[in-house]
Backbone:
């Protein structure tokens, strides 16, 4: 598993290349082998999941948490991936100081189980959790009725945004969609730290499950959220999601890289949404990122 995750770390710009021992940026993860992610797509499975994520999926063991959730290989990859973070609390204050300070205060008093939480319970401004509080600030500033909206999150990683939204009662309900083993990880993470009555209401769906995917198309969502996911998924998954959003969402928040795998995904997503939504697309300030220019879209149905 580590090997593929390491590979992904080297492929954040979407450019396939071969990892050699000399390239290894993560000396602490010593037991890796060289793997190429070049080559044709594996024809097995759905075209909604690309080969790279299928490899992660196959090697990702949701049970491998004996040393604590924060030591799970996927979670460590996630954080290594985000080693240099901007001051997201400062960015949130620029959006709206009142909302930002209210959310930070509530985070520090109510939220539990954050992998990047400090013992003093102060929110680290340069943390993943602060990034997710920044997203919430953006959302609340544009959608003041956010707590009454039912959220669908596509590609939520191990579930940190979901955890915060649920613990802060920032949604009326939550559905999560991701690849099979990541959704399992997310399910276990949220079960470990979200109030049981709230957790019981969360619905988890996998992109490999055709019935679940069809079921989502029957639903309506007050908000669809997808950060650094739809920009990275194969075109078939992106198209499927954009169709769902166009047909079934009242609002959408998407963040990600402008360009991925040689495609202008920011432009593609914007033009797909413009048919039904008023789309506000802004650059996302993250100078230290190795993802290249990033954007945020907050769009409301016309
Ligand atoms: C870079 S992580 C982003 C996680 C989180 N949203 C964040 O911003 O930190 C990419 C996410 O997309 C998910 N993903 C990858 N391929 C996918 C697919 N075909 N369909 C849905 N989700 C996918 C991954 O499992 C992961 O949760």
Residues:
């Amino acid at each position: 598993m580590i090997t593929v995750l390491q590979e992904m770390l080297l492929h954040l710009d979407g450019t396939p290349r071969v990892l050699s021992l000399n390239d290894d940026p993560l000396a602490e993860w010593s037991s890796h082998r060289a793997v190429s992610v070049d080559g044709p797509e594996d024809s097995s499975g759905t075209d909604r999941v690309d080969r790279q994520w299928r490899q992660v999926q196959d090697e990702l063991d949701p049970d491998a948490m004996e040393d604590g959730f924060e030591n799970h290989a996927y979670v460590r990859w996630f954080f290594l991936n985000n080693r240099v973070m901007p001051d997201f609390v400062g960015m949130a204050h620029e959006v709206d100081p009142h909302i930002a300070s209210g959310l930070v205060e509530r985070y520090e008093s109510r939220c539990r189980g954050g992998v990047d939480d400090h013992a003093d319970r102060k929110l680290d401004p340069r943390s993943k959790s602060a990034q997710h509080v920044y997203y919430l600030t953006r959302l609340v500033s544009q959608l003041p009725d956010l707590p009454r909206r039912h959220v669908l999150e596509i590609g939520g990683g191990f579930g940190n945004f979901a955890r915060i939204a649920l613990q802060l009662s920032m949604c009326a309900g939550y559905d999560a969609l991701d690849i099979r083993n990541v959704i399992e990880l997310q399910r276990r993470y949220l079960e470990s730290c979200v109030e049981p009555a709230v957790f019981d209401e969360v619905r988890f769906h996998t992109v490999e499950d055709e019935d679940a995917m069809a079921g989502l198309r029957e639903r309506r969502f007050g908000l669809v959220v997808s950060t650094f996911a739809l920009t990275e998924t194969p075109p078939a998954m992106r198209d499927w999601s954009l169709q769902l959003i166009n047909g079934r969402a009242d609002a959408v928040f998407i963040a990600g890289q402008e360009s991925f795998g040689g495609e202008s995904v920011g432009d593609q997503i914007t033009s797909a949404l413009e048919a039904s939504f008023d789309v506000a697309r802004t650059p996302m300030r993250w100078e230290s990122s190795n993802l290249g220019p990033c954007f945020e879209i907050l769009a409301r149905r016309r």
Summary: The first helix runs from residue 2 to 10. The first strand starts at residue 150 and ends at 154. The CA atoms of residues 230 and 238 lie 6 Å apart. Residues 2-80 form one domain.
